[in-house]
Design goal:
Structural class of chain A: mainly beta
Order of helices and strands of chain B: EEEEEEEEEEEE
Number of helices of chain A: 0
Shape of chain A: globular
Radius of gyration of chain B: 13 Å
Oligomer: heterodimer
Distance between the termini of chain A: 33 Å
Radius of gyration of chain A: 14 Å
Number of helices of chain B: 0
Shape of chain B: globular
Distance between the termini of chain B: 41 Å
Largest sheet of chain A: 7 strands, mixed
Number of strands of chain A: 11
Number of strands of chain B: 12
Largest sheet of chain B: 6 strands, mixed
Chain lengths: 115, 112
Amino acid sequence: DADVTQTPRNRITKTGKRIMLECSQTKGHDRMYWYRQDPGLGLRLIYYSFDVKDINKGEISDGYSVSRQAQAKFSLSLESAIPNQTALYFCATSDYSGTGVYEQYFGPGTRLTVT
Amino acid sequence: GNSVTQMEGPVTLSEEAFLTINCTYTATGYPSLFWYVQYPGEGLQLLLKATKADDKGSNKGFEATYRKETTSFHLEKGSVQVSDSAVYFCALRKTGGFKTIFGAGTRLFVKA
């Protein structure tokens, strides 16, 4: 089984709808992240969480919110979806690797289309 | 601020050809550098990393050397295979930090 799972894998929704993307991990990591990937732009950080009580905005948090329900679960919500939120969304986790460098582990992604 | 620039794709090669994907960075201090690979329909996987100047990261036949004098971390492989077809991302992170800065990605197609 995959260490980082995301549901749904694909979603088409209409403008103005609320949608939630879910992420679960079995790696036991404290840190979790949400990124979006757009062609030609790489990955950009939306939100990150160091533990259940610590949630922080990333570089592009406007229009998004998150919930860290447990150490293993981190959900991303779009309160009122708009077409320019059409993208590939990735959840990731990290822990200290022992070499001073944090390793990140990514889920398979959720492809979201807002029409 | 910190940034990563990598060559635009797509890069199309024949099997057994030599691969170079250029990556340069701008950063304060001494970041750690990474190459990630994204196979079709999958998330990113760490391919290799280097944490200080002159370090060479290597994995699965891929190599990259941390060059501080040229602020570069070019990815190379001596003989590519069809199975190497993927998108490759160069990235940096301040040592001990948690925010990863990604390049735009370079798509590689390898023809049989």
